[in-house]
Amino acid sequence: MELARAAAAEARRLDMPGLLRTADTPLADPAAEARAEDPLTPREREVAGLVAQALSNREVARTLVLSERAVESHVRSILAKTGLTTRTEAVRHHVTGVADEHRAVAQPGEPPDLFNHLQVVIGGQ
Q: For residue 33, which of 13, 24, 39, 41 sits 20 to 30 Å off, Cα-Cα?
């Protein structure tokens, strides 16, 4: 998004309306920014959280009342959207994202309570 903002500013400065329209398009759609930051759908995030708990596709399907095929499809989509190739990488990506999210909301000087945070985020408690 920062690149789009910089491109739009430069297009304004150079008085290039065509380029400005192109650069402004992603900026006009707030959902596009959210998708750029987190490309996963709410259901895919839910599946990723359960996969991060080491549940099999069958267990995820049972938990979410989905078919096993639907879960397989969600896992493939998660891997494709994140550029990952294995479930292990997906778990690491999910847990790292949760840890980063915790660091972003922690108060300065406050020791991180990552274990409890992971329980809340992944465990849904």
A: 13
